[in-house]
UniProtKB/TrEMBL annotation:
Molecular function per GO: GTPase activator activity; small GTPase binding
Top-rank taxon, per record: Eukaryota
Protein known as: Rab-GAP TBC domain-containing protein
Annotated InterPro entries: Rab-GAP-TBC_dom, Rab-GAP_TBC_sf, Rab_GAP_TBC_domain
Lineage: Eukaryota, Sar, Stramenopiles, Ochrophyta, Bacillariophyta
UniProtKB keywords: Membrane, Transmembrane, Transmembrane helix
Length: 137
């Protein structure tokens, strides 16, 4: 739910398109996040290694949310021209592997602002709990 809400915030047109066609973000995002993007067969090893390096340096899962959002941002023109079945096929196979090139994907991901506080606030919003940042005050 956190990633779905992040898409609504960062890519509202695409989020509306997903909603209109009944696409549950969890269906494709679960595989992405559970495997830290190894789920995508076309994901270059160099991209995965670079993401994981960032993850280890930052000590935060932010990079995975930024990369997931970047994949959708870069794929948005294609996704907006598909209905449910076409979107699912695309998101599970990523046939345009050029989008997954580390220079392209990670440059885009680094332009997407996602903070730990933002993720905590979204998590609190979707779970109905008080944000961690509010309890620190």
């Amino acid at each position: 739910k956190v990633f779905e809400r992040l898409i609504e915030i960062k890519l509202p047109v695409l989020a509306d398109h997903f909603d209109h066609h009944g696409l549950n973000v969890g269906i494709f995002a679960l595989g992405w996040f559970q495997t830290l993007f190894l789920y995508l067969p076309s994901m270059p090893t160099a991209t995965v290694c670079h993401m994981w390096d960032i993850w280890l340096v930052e000590r935060s899962f932010k990079i995975f949310f930024r990369v997931g959002t970047a994949i959708l941002f870069l794929s948005q023109p294609i996704l907006l021209n598909h209905e449910l079945e076409g979107m699912m096929t695309y998101l599970n196979t990523m046939p345009d592997a050029t989008l997954l090139n580390p220079d392209i994907l990670l440059a885009c991901a680094n332009q997407i602002k996602v903070t730990n506080r933002m993720l905590e606030d979204i998590e609190a919003e979707v779970t109905g709990q008080k944000p961690a940042s509010a309890s620190a005050k």
